[in-house]
Amino acid sequence: MSLTKQTNLLLKPQYLFLLRRLSTEPTPPAPSQSPSQRPPLQDSESSSLISEAVNLLLQTPHNEWTSSSELNHLLFSSSPTPRLFLKISRHFPSSSQALTFFNYIKSNSLSQQNTQILSSTFQAIFELASREPDSYNKLCDLYKECKDQNVPLSINAATLLIRCFGKANMVDQSLLVYNELEPNIKNTHIRNVLIDVLIRDGRFDDALNVLDQMLQRESEFPPNDVTGDIVFYALMKKNRIRRNVSDEETVSLVYKFGEHGVFPNVVWLTQIIFRLCRNKKTGVAWDVLHDLMKLGAPIEVASCNALLSGLGKAGDFKRMNQLLLEMKETDIQPDVVTFGILINRLCKSWRVDEALEVFEKMSGSKEIDWVPIEPDVIIYNTLIDGFCKAGRVEEGLGLMERMRSQNSCKPNVVTYNCLIDGFCKAGNIESGQELFDQMKEEGIVPNVITLNTLIDGMCRHGRINSAVQLFKEMMRKGLHGNAVTYTTLIHAFCNVGNIQEAMAWFHDMCQAGCSVDAMVYYTLISGLCLAGRVDDASVVLSKLKEAGLCPDIVCYNVLIGAFCRKKMLDKAYEMLTEMEAAGIRPDCVTYNTLISYLSKAGNFLAARRVMKEMLNDGFVPTVVTYGAIIHAYCLHGMVDEAMKIFTDMSSASKVAPNTVIYNTLIDSLCKNNQVELALSLMDDMKVKGVKPNTTTFNAMFKGLREKNMLDKALKLMDKMTEHACHPDYVSMEILTEWFSAVGETEKLRKFVQGCEVSAAPA
Fold it and tell me: What is the pTM (predicted TM-score) of this model?
């Protein structure tokens, strides 16, 4: 009831007797009971006294309070308590009137409780001011007045000031209030309020300074659960802290709190363990959980699940098993999530049989002394997906039938998607389509993942037309594709060289409003470049930039290579300049592409300049670099120069030549009538551990035939058999013509006996 209403109520006739009571002299106390010895007022008496006092204070002018015997008797004749004056002060309409009341009671001589009464009265003044307009400035002025009057703050008054100044972003003022408090007033509650204010203002280090005093082993005011909630909530919500708090700091705080019997609740502990595991600190997470167990923290299954998940991702199945045993020993009942984590990790590690064993044990309560847990649809789907990815689709299908036998767990669209994907990846598209039809018959609506799974399977196995028909049919039925659907079709048509159809699907994708990502553009650019349509590739590149995307190094390399193959060196350099302007440095592929083109064009001087730039840019020439230059020299009949490069790469650069480089040199040397040198290269291959292939032997057979070096050829044929290199039709053509002419067909027959003649490589 407001003060105005209380005053009006007391002025009514039926309540005039209260006023008469206030106007009469009180009965003096009995001699045996002085005012200071009287027992405290009961609640009903206190409430009545407060009402009487408030009404009399409001009706009497401020300047007459001191001279009012009625008021003085009412307030000071009995045992005045801080609580009484606090309640009376709270009933004033404004802080200014309450301050006047404060000055009035201060002018009266009180008992030893004088200081406490003044503190309580000022507390009420602060409370009133905090609810008034311009409250923060008023509180500042009142706090200054409080200090000037040498009135100590009560705990509640200090708490109110710290909190109010914090809300007004006057955190320095909050700190000032706290620092000026008497040490015995700075209890856990006030410290909690200050820590919360500091953290909300992003001053985490200042909050830690206050917290460190609480966390000392012999602290007079140790932390409590509220302290823990404030700090752990802030640690988990990092947007409240203006600096990065390391995992080590977090763990240190957990231990320090634990020494005082304060532990993060299940939510915070679970998040801490999850974050440690995510940051690949599973060992630290393991120690935290077990150390808290030793300190007596209540550990729940959610925290254990977080650690199990982290251990599973790290592949630490030994500790997973140990944690499960510890859960059993400490009566932490695993839930369906626990088993889901185990089954999921085992499936992802291709340990499907072990996952099935865990699945079977879920309901075997007698064997594992756990309450039986019925698997849910997620666990079934996880296990089915594991079987499908392991190529055991039929077993996955059997699990779905077992799933149907459970009343509370039925197959859903995810179940069918897993099985359809398994059949499609196994090349059994028909079974995938049968499942697709079956799910529709059961009333399970296919989603875009179902569609994409089937289309991807069809495209992978060369059934692109069937994929297009399915897509169009589903579109007619209202199931529209997404970016993945269109990208799959575009990629499939690019792979078979049907760029026209790929471009048509690209336009359809844009019209359908699908977000075209960089991979779609890259796929088109690559397909167009392979088809030699560099102008169209440039157009797609422009569209990529218009979409706000940036080509990556792979995209630029594809374009540079395509322009080089088209002998459009100016465009290739234009791409190179644009790439560097975009902040993308050339890589080995870029340099090798340019070196290969320039070398094949006979511009060896420019090729050497590019190689010099390559070295200056910190890249070491690779076997591909040397192979391109050697091939170009051989192509232009400069075998001696090619051999110099070969010698340099083997000695100075220490890059080991591969079979392709040896084949190039051996073929060129044989064509240049340097058969002996070619044979020595074959010996060099043996020394360096490079295996010759059928192409190597064919090149040598051609050279030996031109020199009619039959004995060398026969030895080479024996080596070819030793290396398990099967002759192809090129080998047979060379040897048949030669051996028939010299009458050695029987030796040729023995050579090919038992050997399968393979097709020559393209």
Answer: 0.63
